[in-house]
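User: We ran a pulldown and think these components assemble together. Before we commit to crystallization trials, I'd like a predicted model of the whole complex to look at. Sequences follow.
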Amino acid sequence: MPHLGKPQFIDLQNDVTASDVSLAARENYRSVEHLKRYTTTGMGTDQGKTSNINALVFMGEQTQRTPPAVGTTKFRPPFAPITMGALAGRRVGSLYRPLKRLPAQAWHEERGAVFEEYGGWRRPAAYPRAGEAIEAAALREAAATRKGAGIFDGSPLGKLELFGPDAARFLDLMYVGTLSTLAIGRARYGLLLNENGVLVDDGIVARLGEQHFWVNTTSAGAERTADMFEEWLQCEFTDLKVLVTPVTARWANVTVAGPRAWDLLAAAGFDAALAPSITKHLSMAETQLDGMPLRVLRASFSGELSYELNVPADQAQPLLARLWALAPTFNVSTYGVEALQTMRVEKGYIHIGTDTDGTTQPSDIGFGRGVQNKTANFIGRRSLSRPVSCDAARLQLVGLIPADQRTRLPVGAHLARNPPPTRTEGHVTSSVMSPELGRPIALAMLVGGAARSGEYIGVHHLGTTIDAKVVPLPFVDPTGSRLHG
Amino acid sequence: MAENQDLAPIQVAGLRVILEPRLQVASLRYFDRQGAFAGLVHNITGMRLPDNLCALRSAAERTWEAIILAWRSPTETLMISAAPTLIETLQGAAATLPDGCIVDQRGGALVFRASGEAVADLIARLGGHGACPAIGESLRTRLADVAVLAVKVQPEETLLIVERSYGPHLMTSIRVSAADLAIPLFC
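Assistant: Here's a predicted model for the assembly, 672 residues in total across the polymer chains.
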């Protein structure tokens, strides 16, 4: 091959040149397998279909061998060209990947729901009226829920049942909070960390019996959390007797939230013992409604008085119909995931994976005291004592309000006092228009954010800057009085 | 009802797949296959917990009256039955036992009955190579990318047990694959 004084490419995918092959020969990489590994020729996505012959023949020239004497590398399938369609098979269209379906999907369709995928489930994003955009529908639904009552399908919420003499001890090891002290019928919010102290899931844990717990996980984290529990039980805590059984599909979750939530349920015939004055926030009661088994959890992701009605999946549709029949009387609205997102941002409630990332620890979202108060060990505890975990300049959750009170803060926008180019001090994680406050609000992770309330900061996005004020959370109902009805 | 349309029976030459709504599923969970909980299951159903990868069927005149116990893991057996009060009876009796429990999965787990000479072909086409159970076997597999327990306790049929939320996806995939059954598999 004549020397042209510029690169002569043999492998166009991995930029291997004739001089690379010559160098391999001079370095005595005679085996074709060594030639491949030394130069990376043939390692591109075409697996050498366009480069191998060039490389082998040239290697033969460099080492005075015929191409058959040089040989070929071990071929991997497909040995012959194959269409992408053949590889995809039937995984196209609606079968591209399995999406989970709500047990009451038909009921939502009849209400005009617009479905989107959230965490592997097809869920109602909102229930827009004719000509109404999804965002406008979400604002209307959130406002209606805060004023009267809203019905939400929370069936995808992950659900696990834990049983066994060591279930309480196991949960203490898994969660940041102490769950072994829960009284039967009571519930508590828990944060789940990995060994690095990073938040991987959250949810409510309720005690149904001395050895029997109900664990809610995030909707997208149900399988992941069950697998995590099993891994720890089978690989580390092998002396603990605990059985973990996923029941997400068994129990549908119909959530009724809003100041008139109990009025609606009472009119629908629910047990009077579920009244908010008796069944308090963060309680769980097992009861029935005309023979329909119910596990009623008093917990709230909207910040309102809220009942999570867990019913057998095949009873979800009849229950929704029963409640909806009373909708006109109690000013009830359906609400979808977008309205729920709006309300949870107003309350400053995090969404794992949206407001957190692979570095977020409990103290970053205001749960440092929970860690300090717990004396027992738990997964991730050691990592929380590292210097980097105790650094005051960590990214911490804050609220942001645009200085002009009207410009939405883009999710992902960088925060910095000075205009770019400068070092970022954080980013916006969630941003909504608040129907309650009548202005945009946002959650953000900000360096040392916990100590920066009242400060103004620039929100930089695609060449524009919006001034915003750092504010404490929550935006709405800071005393939490609405939770109790 | 979108779900009901997707779950409608499938009938083609050599294959019939139907949802069996009468069959109810419960998870029997235990620490010890020989313990008190296993004894209770034996007393009430007349059956011992199955060995690994095995499935058992009680004697019954009519198919749907039988109780099926299908191994799912070393600490879990699925109980499949149409008996109306069996789950409650077992739950009540096991309430005070320390070594096991019954987790009601009614409405959460769907049971499909697949029959015909093309069942093995169908399972292979859905990605479950090696997961077509022989009589008396209970095999965990993934069909059409979802977790399925394939159980065979009678020669003429295979039960496919799947999480309710994935039921429409599985049946749609079966419906599409059933149309291909006349085309020989490359193997």
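The mean pLDDT of chain B is 92. That may be worth checking against your pulldown data before setting up trials.

User: Thanks, that helps.
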